Amino acid sequence: MMTEKMMIRSLGNEPPLLADGRRAPDRREVSLRWLSGTFLTGITSSVLMGVALFAALDGRQQLAIPAEAYASAAADAHEDTAVVRGGRLIAPAIAAKPSDRAIMEVSTVVHDGEKEVVRRQPFAHVKMTLAANHVATEDYPDFDPLAIFSADEPQPAPQSRTGAIYGSDVESEVSLKTIPFPTGKTSMKMASGLSLEEVEENVRSNGSVLTDGNTQLAALYYVDPRRFSNEDADVDLTAGLSARVLEQNMTVSASESITPQTEEFADDILPVRVDTPIAKALTDSGYPQQYADGIAGFISQQLGSTDLDKGDVLRIGIIQKGEQAKIIRASVYRGTRHLVTVAVDDKGRYVPGSEPPMLDAIATAFDDNSFAPPPGQNLPRVYDGIYRAALSYGMTKDMTALIIKLLASNVDFQAQLRATDSLEAFFSVADSAGQATEDSELLYVNARFGDTQTRFYRFQDPDDGTVDYFDESGKSIRQFLLRNPVPNGIFKSGFGMRRHPILGFARMHTGVDWAAPRGTAIIAAGNGTVEKAGWDSGGYGNQTIIRHANGYESSYNHQSAIAKGVIPGAKIRQGQVIGWVGTTGESTGPHLHYELIVNGTKVDPLRIRLPGGKSLQGEALAKFEDERKRIDTLLNNQTSDQVASK
């Protein structure tokens, strides 16, 4: 137990020591010197910490980059990194790096009359992570699918303002002029002619290099080739000689007018996604039970099994006349390999049949054409992401609208962005500030959205002077035909056998249905000539048929009205408004019944492999490949001293 005496002994009872005769401070007093020192120390520490933090962030407004940005920005460094995305209460913030933009001086050549002018001008090379926190420098138009596909696209200038990339650097502007080689009189002395022995020696020494791979470029078959061959070499006198037969594309039959009673043939492609009995695969696709049992029984005899395996494709050939549909053929494919075909003879019996011509739809039967946005994301739409990033990197609204239009056939602009979506562009600018102007031109784009990559280059065709954008192989990036003539419509019914909603029995649905409110604009799927525009007595209501190149036709049905000027013989451009959604004819609600006809046969517009647009050939293709290689080399060899801060 601690006593009072023991406590006094432990604490001491002597008075405190004093320095310089001063008394000990009273605890109730406040030292002004201590207070001012503490205050100044706090202010100094805060200022130093702020300066250090600002320098570390390098001007950015965030402390960390989320996992998605890390995965996108450093993909090469950690290719095996798996990033799992989930829902967030706060939208992710991804930073744009200053190294994403470079300004470089590039030599270009422009044709000016008889001269070619080579000059240096600035270009911007940008690599945009679209999911970053970009702030648009100006307002941009709201998403309007009709405007994206509209035909009111500004036409490029007849002469390229930027020109083509020149192969060498120049110090200043250089003018080049090409003149024909003088073949007439000249002041220079002509050399003496070659003797026969000298000619033979030249042929002997140079004949072996007159080839391009396995193709002989020049041959003197009117002279015995043994005369110029090596003594020990075997000479094939028939080498280089070949004949090619060109098939004539012509017809001698008179054209037949299409009526509701005209027989129409269609192929119905049914992909098998799970192991399924043959009869069930048919009934699930809308075929009546009696047809399904009859076909399944005969196919199973030829196939040796009553079931179809996962990955098989069932192809049904149908003849439809008016309201009657008749199955005339059925084939089974394992992947793209043909297994068995059965057909109906004149007596209505099933007999073994020969393999029908292959369709591209067989190989693409399992392609998924839907674009579902990834769940749990708070990122903006693809459309907004492209505009915000492009404007913040110095591109103009017109240039961005052009990119949107060129990507429209491959990209779903209403889907949400992914953290890995990116856009790379190369375009001319006014100066080292990197700001594009009205005279700037877009030369190259490399877009990646999910697993889809689209790359195209600008090129002026020397044959007709037109300017367009082409992929790596020289094919135009513009689509030959659009698959959906109602850009903001909702897919309702596909191509194939189904139960008719009005007639009540199964029949072949020879098109696809796009539902939209009455009065929604319908646009032309491609360039062509109006073949029919008016009322159809066969149940289609107001119908427009447009004839395109190479045997393609598109049909637009149940329209509430047909646009003014859309009459037989009228020329139509892709994206032009040709009518409005309605419910005329045999229809249960406002929608567009869209059909695609190839050489008289109706095909699935969503699955058929459509031809591309214009393709470069010959000398134009060779010049395009040279231009493409120069651009690729220029962008791949970009050095760090060309980088300018964003």
UniProtKB/TrEMBL annotation:
Statement: the UniProt record of this protein carries the keyword Zinc: yes
InterPro entries in the cross-refs: Cell_wall_metabolism_enzyme, Dup_hybrid_motif, M23ase_b-sheet_dom
Cofactor field: Zn(2+)
Transmembrane segments: 32-57
Listed GO MF terms: metal ion binding; metalloendopeptidase activity
Keywords tagged on the record: Hydrolase, Membrane, Metal-binding, Metalloprotease, Protease, Transmembrane, Transmembrane helix, Zinc
GO biological process, any: proteolysis
CDD domains: M23_peptidase
All residue ranges annotated as the M23ase beta-sheet core domain in the record: 507-605
Gene3D superfamilies to which the protein is assigned, alphabetical: 3.10.450.350, Glucose Permease (Domain IIA)
Coiled coil (UniProt feature): none
UniProt keyword RNA-binding, yes or no: no
Protein's UniProt name: Peptidase M24
Organism: Rhizobium chutanense
